[in-house]
Each structure stands twice: as C-alpha cells, then as structure tokens.
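Bug #77: duplicate submission created two jobs. Keeping one. Sequence:
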Amino acid sequence: MTADKQPLLAEIDDAHERLGELERDLRDVDGLLASFAVQNEQYRLLEGVCAMLDSIEQLGAADVFWGKKLDAAGRAQHLRDVRQRVAEFVAEVRAAEDKRLSILGRIAEGGEVLSILEGDLRDIEDEEIERSLEWVVEREIGPVTDGPNLPWVRGGEEDLRLRKSLGGSLLAASLRRRSCRWTRCPSAS
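Kept job's structure:
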C-alpha cells in the first residue's frame, strides 16, 4: 500500500463513520416524528375544538357548553392554555422536522465528500496499476562490456578481417596489373 493511500483510506473510514452516525440520528428523528403522528392528530383536533369554542363564545352560548362553573375570564384562560400546549407541540414537531432536513443535508454533503474521496482512491489505484505495467529499464552505469559484434560498431574483429581482405585484394590487383605490363595479357589489349 502506498503512502498516498494510507491517509486517504483513513479519511474514507472517517467519512463512512460520520455517515453512519448521521443515519442513526436520522432514524432517531424519524422515530420521534412517527411518535408525533398520533399526537399530531390529537393536537389538530384540539385546535379545531378551540376554534369552535371561540365561535360558541361569540354566539353567546358558552354557558351551554361550559356550564356555570367557569366565568368568561376562566374560559378564555383555559383556551389560551390549550392553545399554548398546541403551539408548543407544533414547535416541537417543527424543530424535529428542521433537524431531519439538516441531517439529510449533512448526509448529502457527506455522500459527496465520500464520492470525491473514493474517486481520489480510484485514481491512485489506477496510477499504481499503470506504474506496475510500465517497463522498467535497469542497468548498471559504467562501460559497456563486450557484447555482440554489430556491423555498425567500429574496431571489432569484423573491421580487422575487412582490412586484411581488402588489402589482399588490392595487392593481388596491383600485382596482376604489373604482370600485365611486362607480358601481354589478353585483357590488356
């Protein structure tokens, strides 16, 4: 494993761990919102009841519902208390929904970061594969030892033989020419 890979793998593990924590948080928030589903219906009905009780109060028939036990101020205070509890519940639900949206956003960001890190890891692995497929030329630095005699290499045995045969041919040609001058050679005429 290369040195470039170690920190990247550690970052990927950290990103996976953070995503796992965020997904656990999301499950917790989803469970809380699911528990709010039943209460949500109850509080929605309470809101409707409060609106109807306001209408009954405006019509002047509040004593029919409330009886003589509560005066107008007591009834108004009771409705404010109920509305306050409904508002607190709605705020609690809204906070849970906001937290859920925040977690979803952080999960999306974490997924993008993880995708980038995994892309970087793939790039490093691809470079490693390419390096492993390259031909490595290794040789010792120094003078070239006696290797094969190649025709373009000067000073070898081939050059020595060439000079000897060329010298012998020139000597034979010059002797023949001299001998032809003293004697009549058929080719000289």
